[in-house]
Amino acid sequence: MTTWLPKPHPGLIVRYCYLWYREYLEGREEGAKDRPCAIIAALRVDVDGETRALVLPITHIAPEHPALAVEIPAATKKRLGLDEARSWIVLTEWNEFIWPGPDLRRLPAASDASVAYGILPPGLFAVVREKFLAIVNTGRAKRVSRT
Questions:
Q1: 3-state SS class at 43
Q2: Sign of the dihedral defined by the CA atoms of residues 86, 125, 33, 64, in that order
Q3: Quick check: 34 and 15 in contact, CB under 8 A?
Q4: Cα separations (Å) of 37 from 1, 95, 120?
Q5: Residue 93's beta-bridge partner residues?
Q6: What is the CA radius of gyration of the chain?
Q7: H or E element: which one contains 133?
Q8: Model pLDDT for residues 30-70, shown as the tens digit of each residue
Q9: How far apart are CA 75 and CA 123, in angstroms?
Q10: Which pLDDT tens digit goes with each residue over 88-124?
Q11: Quick one: which of 15, 29, 75, 138 could link to 105 by a disulfide (CB 3.0–4.6 Å)?
């Protein structure tokens, strides 16, 4: 079965083997599990059309400080086909990789073999982007560059 790879688009939720910053500091090169991640930016980096995707992890673990994550509303989770447990988009770290990267994963039981769940509503994405950029501007967000 061939995996369908969409163009990386800000707000798109993809399944990805996310490497947490703490795992990176431990010397790991692979994340512990595949998870939904939100593309926060897709940057064209050269004339050959190479694109770097920046993804934020989505977790079930409530943030210690509410300003450091954005909760995904239940209706949005349902539309995307995610589970019913509460989830947050983490704003304090991101993975950056050349699209498409080897860490993209096929959705579980997806008939079309896609790596994408769908896209965040524009209003929710705007909140995520605004809060993420504010944290980046304070120097409190950590980047993990992947190959």
A1: strand
A2: negative
A3: yes
A4: 23, 10, 11
A5: 142
A6: 15
A7: helix 122-137
A8: 999 999 999 999 998 877 789 999 999 999 999 999 999 99
A9: 14
A10: 999 999 999 999 999 999 998 776 679 999 999 999 9
A11: 15
